[in-house]
Write a structure and sequence with these properties.
With about 150 residues, the chain is mainly beta. It is built from no helices and 9 strands. Strands 1-2-3-4-5-6-7-8-9 form a 9-stranded antiparallel sheet, with no helix packed on it. A hairpin with a 5-residue loop joins strand 6 (about 80-90) and strand 7 (about 100-110).
Length: about 150
Amino acid sequence: MLAAQGGVHYQHGPLRVGVGAVEDVVRGGGNGEMLYGVMGSYQATDSISARLGAEWQGQNTQYGGGYETVGLGTTYVTGPWAFTADYYRINRDDQGNSNAWAAGSYYKLSSAFDVFVELADSDTPGLAQRGGLKDAYWLTGARYHF
């Protein structure tokens, strides 16, 4: 399976901007439409940064899957710890809309290795919604940055 993809980013001082695209091939579980994204972040202080991003994909008449997402988030760093919070507004072309969020904590063990825990609520239409934190899920792991 081959899927074309690419992206670029630019940084000037505390401002970073990135754009990217990927061919969301059906064989890989996608809907056969291009997926595009753009993001920007601003490093307000040594400890605080803010980000804004958007992602969109066209609707496929056979496989569905079209949507537009806008997200807003922030990160606070103190020593080896980083804390994040993000909100996403998701407009699905063939289903209801969602208000998703995520909050996380990361601990840097070395310059290239961290461990993390995240709590998120995708507010996905079609899943049994029970309300409150009953619909949220936890994600934990370790990550090595090459």
